[in-house]
Amino acid sequence: MPIIGHIIKGFIDVRDKLAGTKNPVEEQEAVLEELLKKAENTAFGKHYNFKAIRESNNPANAFAASVPYFDYNRINKEWWQKLHDGEEDVTWPGTPDYFALSSGTTGKTSKRIPVTNDMIDAIRKTGVEQVFALSNFDLPPDFFELGILMLGSSTDLNKVEDHEEGEISGISASNIPTWFRGYYKPGEEISEIEDWDERVQKIAEEAPNWDIGALSGIPSWIELMLQKVIEYHGLEHIHEIWPNLQVYTSGGVAFGPYKKSFNALLGKPITVIDTYLASEGFIAFQARPETDAMQLSTDSGIYFEFVPFEPEYIQPDGSLSDDAPALKLSEVKEGQDYVLIISTVSGAWRYLIGDTIEFTNVERAEIKITGRTKFFLNTVGSQLSVNKLDDGVQELEGKFGIRIPEYTLCAKRIDGEFYHCWYLGTEDSTEDTELANALDESLKNANKNYRVARSKALKGVKVVSVPPSVFHDWNGKNKKKGGQVKMERVMGEEKFKEWEAFVNP
Prior knowledge:
By secondary structure, this protein is an alpha/beta fold. The chain is built from 17 helices and 18 strands. The strands form three sheets. The protein has an eleven-stranded mixed beta sheet with strand order 6-3-7-8-9-10-11-15-14-13-12, with helices on both faces. The protein is globular, with a radius of gyration of 23 Å. Residues 389-494 form the GH3 C-terminal domain.
């Protein structure tokens, strides 16, 4: 009988009931006040007069009026670079103990994003809140005695002068609470292996020794790990070796495109819980089973603002125009795409994280990620965000009974005419012309701007099917495998030339 599991489950249930009803708007007001107060005497706080902002009649409005938008390049050039020059109290008190390396989906060069002890505490706090929210998912007591396999970056961080560097998943895993270490797999020794293929090989070898109840990681890399374990042990599906696997916490990208290929690796259905952990902080997690939307972490060191995702506010490089309006949580509406802006306990201020979101429930502050500002395909007026592209690909999967876990595309000029050129990652065989026609019709039916573009400047759609492994190899060549690495869904023409040269050497 799972006695410990009953105790843990009982504690979670009671704690969740005692927590009371959240008020995200009030929590955000308190977070902004705390951020401004703590950073008031930093160089950044003095430059933008945080003291006067705090003492104003409306601190949120004064903050938005006084502090400009920053993307990574701007805040790094103007402020964070000073940290690497040895300065203290730049955008947050003291100096950060960590820098999160993030190339994301946009290039080979890693960004170096400060991660303070306050942020480590905030990430841990949100993680604990997510654990407590498991009471909503009606999991059996024995679940709370099983191992949790977290597949992220290596926890063997690089020591650089007075700080350590690594991807946020590696930094987070290296700071897990002591009480959690008994549940954590693959354990510290394997987690420190830098080479991703070697780490996954060790996981496959050790898999029979673990009773895994939950998985956590980016879908594409979790899939590859599961495939390796299945292949290594000659299995039909992963439940043959981990029969008690019940939960997968997805993160980094939308799970939808991977759902069909992921489920093919299972022997029975499991609960999928979405999370939103970025290099800049733990932003949101799915708190209820009746929705796949995620609840913003409104009380853990991150202040959110929301810019309506309209073409007139987005620059060609994905940054925001200076006059783009920012809304508070109390001002947003459901069903509208917004560019997400954050200010954090790591000293990011009015920071363009690069993601677009949509509110599904304003009262609960629940959101879905809808895309990336740089992956907004509007070259010929088609106005396609990543969620629209995902929907089109998933419709193809349903129509043809195939699996397409990866894709990328470009608005490419061919003989002076624009075409949307798609590469679909699939192991299944379907005529590319059939896929192109079906994809074109799907997007016409779903998006009026795309339909108008197809009647004017957008000449047509081309599709090339390639094995999904090509996408993994591309990421391995350009960045590295595993961790926070994600495939770029939309490429510019220059990057697309590199991609096509890689696919067709």
